Amino acid sequence: MYLDIYSGSATSASSPSMLSFTIRSFISKSKSKSKSNLPSRRYSLSHLIPLCSTSSPSSISPDLPTMSTSHNGSNQITPQPQPQPQPFQVAKRLEKFKTTIFTQMSLLAAQYGAINLGQGFPNFDGPEFVKEAAIEAIRDGKNQYARGYGIPDLNITIADRFRKDTGLEVDPEKEIIVTTGCTEAIAATMLGLINHGDEVIVFSPCYDSYLATLSMAGAKVKGVTLRPPEFSVPIEELKSVISKNTRAVLINTPHNPTGKVFTREELNAIASICIDNDVLVFSDEVYDKLVYDVDHISIASLPGMFERTVTMNSLGKTFSLTGWKIGWAIAPPHLSWGIKQAHSFLTFATATPLQWASVAALRAPDSYFVELKRDYMAKRAILVEGLKDVGFEVFSPSGTYFVVVDHTPFGHEDDIAFCEYLIKEVGVVAIPTSVFYLNPEEGKNLVRFAFCKDEATLRAAIERMKDKLNRK
Ligand SMILES: Cc1ncc(COP(=O)(O)O)c(C=O)c1O
């Protein structure tokens, strides 16, 4: 397996035809990058990074053939004894971000046949009525570019749902932008509203795309850490990091990876700090329907907050369709304009038939959401109780489909060492949480398990851990 560093896609280059396809597509991409520093007439397979390791170019097998373009322009494969690896090229703004831990762990999981409780996607399918709506939309020819900020029916449906959930009345035309997943809503918000040098406050640990998109926007990131066991918001610390340069506070409730749901008191305190200091709030609420013992509150619904809040959400978690990547941002017109501009030049529009199917999804009866919550509560109970039985200190989540545990009773050096041991020796995948922290040291005692898996899978993972996980 190789990673094409330009497309980021995984490729099997094991057969000759695949190999030449890989080389061809690689060359055409390279050629189109006229400003790159790559030599214009010689290309090496060493630009393909073996995915099974985090290797540098020097670890690439020297006996791989390299590609040359002959004088008459035809492509030939000729053996080159000494390939000259080129340094990987990445703009400074992304230099410090590595292959995501989720990709690395999923690859290790496949390699060791481990049960994957790492990456946060369900191992069951989304609802039939939503899939049928997508198929129908494709058959009906709803297949060309959609309107940039969303098909009108979807914007109206999102506004209806937001009213139902929060009591807020929003203008579907001026205050909603449909995006390619919440990930694009996050990127468009940062790129559309943040200027170079603006300060943005982030609660650590946090979802990995925040720091990368803030870096792309040129923001200065300030972190405030949420600490176990409650992961409460340290309000005084938040006050102390706000400055005259603070443009926004980025929150995520329910929170990945901790499963914490921000309380009304915490949200009121954040709101009043932001109002007093004229600071915006970017609120990522992708797990809003996955709350168990408490209610989810959108900070936009608090007094004086709608006009300074961007609420971001998506379909993936609520409808077990994480691959569809339908998301949205809701904001008052003076903020939605910047987001719309960034979105126009990032993706312009999002998959038309899936937008039609999203209309069907978001109009689901209340019973759908009740059942979803009930199913997830059962899964949470299996995993939380199971992990306690195994011997972890478990921080039971009030929301999301994640559980964070303290692994230190098992005596491993840190979260990464523990996760490697867990995959290789026990056959279960968890995610080390240090990757979610601005200061990785703060997360080294914790790992995250996901319970968006069928019950048999959860029970099997628990059994493996009970059987094989030993204290050092
Ligand atoms: C907190 C958080 N925000 C956003 C996303 C991405 O959402 P989407 O798949 O809709 O882009 C995720 C996905 O795991 C997430 O955990």
TrEMBL record:
List GO molecular-function terms, semicolon-separated. Answer: kynurenine-oxoglutarate transaminase activity; pyridoxal phosphate binding
Q: Where is the signal peptide?
A: none
Q: Where is this region: Disordered?
A: 54-86
Of the GO CC terms on this record, one is: cytoplasm
Residue ranges with Polar residues bias? 67-78
Tell me which InterPro entries the record gives: Aminotransferase_I/II_large, Kynurenine-oxoglutarate_AT, PyrdxlP-dep_Trfase, PyrdxlP-dep_Trfase_major, PyrdxlP-dep_Trfase_small
List, separated by semicolons, the cofactors it needs.
Answer: pyridoxal 5'-phosphate
UniProt lists compositionally biased (Low complexity) regions at: 54-66
Q: Which UniProt keywords apply?
A: Aminotransferase, Pyridoxal phosphate, Transferase
Q: Which residues form the Aminotransferase class I/classII large domain?
A: 115-464
Q: What is this protein called?
A: Aminotransferase class I/classII large domain-containing protein
- Protein's organism: Crotalaria pallida
